[in-house]
Amino acid sequence: MVSQIHPDVEATATEIASMEIRGAATIxxxxxxxxxxxxxxxxxxxxxxxDRELRRAARRLLDTRPTAVSLPNSLRYVxxxxxxxxxxxxxxxxxxxxxxxxxxxxxxxxxxxxIGANRLRDGDTILTHCHSTDALSCVEAAREQGKSxxxxxxxxxxxxxxxxxxxxxxxxxxxxxxxxxxxxGRYLDDADHVIVGADSIAADGxxxxxxxxRSLAVTARERDTPIVVAAQTIKLDPATLSGHTVExxxxxxxxxxxxxxxxxxGEITVExxxxxxxxxxxxxxxxxxxxxxxxxxxxxxxxxxxxEQIRTPWEN
Length: 316
Ligand code: RI2
Description:
Blueprint: H1 7-18, H2 24-41, H3 47-62, H4 70-80, H5 87-117, E1 125-128, H6 133-144, E2 150-154, H7 162-171, E3 176-179, H8 184-187, E4 193-196, E5 200-201, E6 207-210, H9 213-222, E7 227-230, H10 259-265, E8 275-278, E9 285-288, E10 291-293, H11 298-306
Parallel strand pairs: 1-2, 1-4, 2-3, 4-7, 7-9
Antiparallel strand pairs: 5-6, 6-8, 9-10
Helix pairs in contact: 1-2, 1-3, 2-3, 2-4, 2-5, 4-5, 5-6
């Protein structure tokens, strides 16, 4: 019997790849929910077949975007709870595991926000890059504490996720100045904090985030503007403990330039890396739900949470 991938898993995978579902935490939540649907709707009649289906579904989800480690971390969390001798027991364990994962995700973001908010003072101006729910959670918590904030929001080419950030900040009552990416240097003197999210964090404290984060961090360091990375612990990449590097996703050329415009220029190469790597020396703090860490010490938390043995149960 060929194991079936549920249409909802297919749809989730397609939406992650096309970025209708995007942002590391949102991707993690969608993947856990998709695995839950796969388990709930499975008509496998023996546990081995059930497990085979789950593994296929997990591989389909993983085969979408390579950089955000929250995706494999969410699947790993659910697989670690897979238990029982019958299909029904194994189904229930996946449903519970996925539900627990989503609850923890929400709580982690709230806890992280409360910690990050402590860094922000009444009247401060933040400068943002891309759109990060973890970073915005810090702003939301600060607003709930009654602090008034201003924001300078980088547009974030090529997909302009800065527009999502601008809209959500306005909903929180934060005045927003939208700028093109190249203007960041000029506006850094007006900012008290640069605050960004992360897609992955390596064992050495390097931060993998939306392309443009590195140059922003380097310029911010030169101006002594602190750069804060808001990242739940599901952004910690356990594979980097054993020397693996994080793959940087290369996306379609058409996100950068339309075909007609490209043709009118002549023979050119277009590249569209979605992320870059900011070395730890340019980062002041990584704010997680477990507290705030200097990037160089994040490895301690990583070992505590993941150990040295990194499992990939979907490969069996
Ligand atoms: P949260 C996004 O990537 C951005 O790089 C953002 O900083 C990061 O995910 C984390 O987002 P993309 O999916 O988990 O837009 O904080 O390529 O929401």
